Fold:
Amino acid sequence: MTQSPFKQSPVKRLTHATMEKYENVWFGIATAMSVLLAVAVFASFVSGTVPRLEGEGGAGHHLQGVVNGRVDPRNLAGTPFSKPGVVDNADGTQTVFVVARAFAFDPGTIRVKAGVPVTFHITSGDVLHGYYVEKTNINVSVIPGQVSSFTTTFKTPGPLNIVCDEYCGTGHHNMLNKIIVEAPQP
Amino acid sequence: MTVSPPYDTPAPQRTLEPDAYRARVAPAIGDAAYLASLKKVTQYYVATAFIALFIGVLLGPLQAFNYAGINVYENPILKALLKSYYQGLSLHGVLNALVFTQFFISGWLLYLPTRDMGARINMKFAWGTYIMMTAGLLIAAVPLLLNKATLLYTFYPPMEGHWAFYVGATIMVAASLLVAGQVVLTWVGWKKQNPGQVTPLVTFMSVSLWMMWLVCSLGLVAEALLVLLPWVFGLRPGVDPLIAKTLFWWTGHAIVYFWLLPAYISWYAFLPKQAGGRIVSEPLARLTFVMFLLNSTPVGIHHQYADPNISNTWKMIHMFLTFLVAIPSLLTAFSIAGSLEDAARARGGRGLFGMLTHLPWKDPVVVGQILAMVSFIGGGAGGIITASFAFSPVIHNTAWIPGHFHITVGTAVTQTFMAIAFWLVPHLTGKRLVAPKVALASMWLWFIGMMFFAVGMHWEGLLGVPRRALISAVALPIYKEGYMHSQIPMALTGISGVILLLAGLSFFYVLFATLLSPRVDDAEAATPLPYSETISPAGRSLRGASPLVRATEPLLALWVVAFALVALMYGPVLMRLTQNASLVPGCNYYTTVQSEVGCNEQR
Ligand code: HEM
Ligand SMILES: [Cu+2]
Ligand SMILES: [Cu+2]
Structure:
C-alpha cells in the first residue's frame, strides 16, 4: 500500500467543504461573466460600432446581376462590377464597387468623402481574398460568387491602406491598395 | 484538532467506498504479449507525432524571422528545399497542428482509457488504424512537398490543391474516427460488464472527448466527401466556397478543444499526483468534459463574422454560445489551481509565495505543465476577444491570430504533450529520461520564447500586419509607412524565433536520446500511470453517487444531445447556403511555375 505523503503535512489541507463553497462562487462568476460579455457585444452591435455585413436581399443588394447576394464571378459583365469604382449618389452618399483578383484590388486607389455614408460592394474574380482597411474595424472576407456589402462613414480625412488579409497565393503579401478619404468640399 | 487519518476529508452525506479517495491503480494486465503490443502501438503514435513536430518546429523560426522583417527565403539552400514562404508555412501548419496533434492524441487517448478500464482491445484493429493514419499522412505529404498543396492547411476552395492532399487528409481523419470508435465501443462493453458502476474518471474524460470528436469531425468529413473530392475529381462543375468554409469551421473550431482536452486530462488526473496534491473534484471534472461535449461544436460560425451572406442573427447566436465555452475552462482553472495549492500545502507551503515556492520546480513534467497552463491564461483571454463580434474585425486575420494560437495550441497543448512525453516514453519503453536538466531547461525556454512570440505577434496584429504574408518581401511603400511602426514587436518576434529554436533543439535532443537509449527498467513498476488521490471522488457505485455524477454518466444520451445541438445550430444556416449555392471554378496561385498558375475555366 502506498503511504500518503499528506499525513506529515504541517499545513492544513484543503477539504471538500471549502472547495465546494469556492467552487460554487467561481461557477457563478464564470457564468455571469459570459452573459455580461454577450450583452456588451450586443450593445455595441445595436449602437452601430460594428460595420455589419448586409445579408442576402438586404439593403443594397438590389443590384443588377446579384441574386441573394450571389453573383457569377465568370460573368461580371452584366453587373455593376464590370466597371469597378466610386459612384456619387444623388443623395450625397457614395457607393463603391470593388473586384479583388490575385494580386490587386480593382480599382487600385479609391477616393471617398469624409463624413458621408459610403456603401461598399466587394466581390472576387478568382479565389478568397480579404479586405482589411488599416486603422479601422473594416475587415471582411471577399469570396468569389458572393458579394460583401456594408456601409460605413469615414470620419477623418487622410490615406488608409487596404490589405488583403486572406492568403490568396504567392503574391498575397503584395496585395495592397489605398483608400484616400477626402475632406468634404464646402 | 481532529484529523481522521489518513485523510482529513470526511465523505459528505453520501457513503462512498472508503478507498474512493485513494489514487486509482490501473487494473493489472496479465497477458504480457498483449500489454507489450498495446504499449508499442502507443509508442509508434507518439513517436510519429514528435517526428512531425520536429520538422514543423524547425520551420517555425523562418516564419518568425519573416515577422521580424527578415526574409530568409532568398537563401539558395532554403530555396532548393522550399519553393516559397507559403510552402514552408503550409508544412509548418500541417505538421504541427494536424499531424502532431492527431497522432499524439490517437495514441494517448487509445492507451489511457484502455489501461484505465483494464480492457482487452483488438490489437490488429489498433495497428490497422495506425497504419491507415500513417498511409494517409504519406499520401498527403507528397503534394505538400511538391508545392502542389500549398493551401496553408485550410480547406478553402476555390484555391485548389492536388487531389492526393485531400485524399490523404481524409484518410487520416477517417483513421482517427476508427480510433474513436474503438474506444467508445470498448467503453460500451465495459458498461455492460459493470452495470451500476461509475465510469472511472480518465475513461470518462477520454470517451466524452472522442464522442465530441465524432460530432465535430462530421463537418470536415462532409466537406471532404460532399464538396472537395467530387470537385477535384471533376464530378462537379465547381465549388461553393462559402459552404465549404462553413463546413470547415464546424470542425475547425471544435478541433481546438479536441487538441486541448487531452492536455486537460493530464492536468486533471495526473498533474495533481505529479505535483504532490490531489484532484479537487471528480464530479466537477466530469461536468467540464460534458460541457465541452455539448458546447464546443455548435459555435463555429464565430470564425465567419467577416463572411457575407450568413445572417447576423446566426452569428450572434454562435457568439453567445461561444462565450459559454469559457465556463468549463474557468472551472478547469479553478480545479487545477486547487490541486496545486493542495500540493503546495502538502509540502508545507503557506501564504501566496509559499504556495508557489513549495511546488516541485525541478521536475520537467510538472514545470512543463504549469508553464503550459500559465500560457493558457493569456490564450483564453485572447480567445474571448477573438470570439467577440465587436472586437473580431480589428484583429481578424492579422498577426494577432498566430500570436493567439501559439500560446494556446502551440504552448498550452504542445508543451503539455512534451511534458507528458517525459514520463510517458519511459512508461511505455522502460527507458530512462536522458538529461532531465536539459528537459527542464527546454520547458522554460519554450515558455519564454512563446511569451516573446505572443507579445510580438499580438502587437504586430494590432498595428495591422496581416497573418500568412511574406511581409519581409513587400516591395511597396506601404511596408515602410505602415508595418515599420512595428519595429519593437518585430524585434520581439525575431528574438522569439531564436529562443524557440533553442527550446526545440534541447527538447528533441532529450526525447530522441531517450528513445534511442537502452531499456533498463521494468516500465510498469518504475513508471506507473500517475493516478492521483481525490478530495471529492465520484465514487464507484452509481447508487451512492452524487446527482452530478449520475447526470453526467449517461454519455450515450448526452452524445445524442450534442448531435441535436449541432443540427439545430448549423441546420438552418447550411440549408440556406445550399439553397443559394453558387458554384465557382477552381484556381491555384501558389505555385511559382507560371504555366500552372491561374483559374481552371474548363470545369
Ligand atoms: C519553434 C516554435 C514555433 C515558431 C517560431 C512558430 C512560428 C510561427 C509563425 C511566425 C507563424 C505565422 C506565420 C504567418 O502567419 O505567416 C506560424 C504559423 C503557424 N504555426 Fe507556428 N511556430 C512554432 C511552433 C508551432 C507549434 C508548436 C504549433 C502547433 C502545434 C504551430 C502551429 C502553427 C500554425 C497552425 C500556424 C498557421 C499556419 C497558417 O496560418 O496557415 N506552430 N508559426
Ligand atoms: Cu488577395
Ligand atoms: Cu491575399
Remarks:
- Residues 1-11 of chain B have pLDDT under 50 and may be disordered.
- Residues A 129, 164, 166-168, 172, 175 surround copper (II) ion (ligand 3) (CB under 6 Å).
- The CA atoms of residues 196 and 542 of chain B lie 5 Å apart.
- The first strand of chain B starts at residue 278 and ends at 281.
